[in-house]
Amino acid sequence: MTVAFFKSLLRSFYDVTLPRQQLLFNRYRVHSVLGMGSYGITYKAYDCSTQNYVAIKHLRKSKACRAVHRKAFHQEYETLRSLPQSPSFPSVHGEYYCDDGYFLIMDFMEGTTFEDLVFRDGMIYSEEDTVKLLNKLLSLTDLFHNEGIVHRDLRLPNILYHNHRLSIIDFGLATSVSKASTKFSKKHPMRTQDITSDFYNLGHFSLFLLYSNYEPTSQLERSWEEELTLTPLVHQMIRRLLQIDAPYRTSQELRNDIARYDSKKTT
Prior knowledge:
This protein is an alpha+beta fold.
């Protein structure tokens, strides 16, 4: 029996989703499952007190048995409390425990994930669309980077679009900027404790959007640099975001390249 199989069996035994309409803390009534991650299950729930919907994150019972996971769950609560006030980030309302386990109560964020927009709804994003969205996201990441917070999970399912506004959710992997952030790290770029981690994820986010406009002409597997037709500046931006070339060290460096791209589009 492999370790992976054992973990899967453990999750299926312990991590049963809460039933619809279950009342938590005599206030929140479970409505539906919003998402299931490796550490938690997030629900949409009705707040009987305020008569608004909230999001409730439940630490998986298979994880809650270890102190290190409970500590990480509490750290997510502290991170959410530290976020700057913005309609693009969820506000946290409390951290609770009951017989069913550990819970975080936070704002329910309206919107559709880019994962659904691209893969379910078939939305197509041009190079220009992608750069505009990247610039908007950069304005949001600046807000929490300036507070010393790195998200480290800026993927399609964690970025929402609603009424022409972007939102960022799921700060479960977020961390404080490392004091040694200027030094070389052997960690995977997605998991380093500095802002280049978020830039790396934004590079992958941008690639997914750019691929929405791609029509394959061959069955041969090729790299994105061979398959996508990009302007030289956007090609360079993606390479730097993915740290193939010298990575961006500040958001201003990236903004400068975006400004150069915009100026060329208008001439």
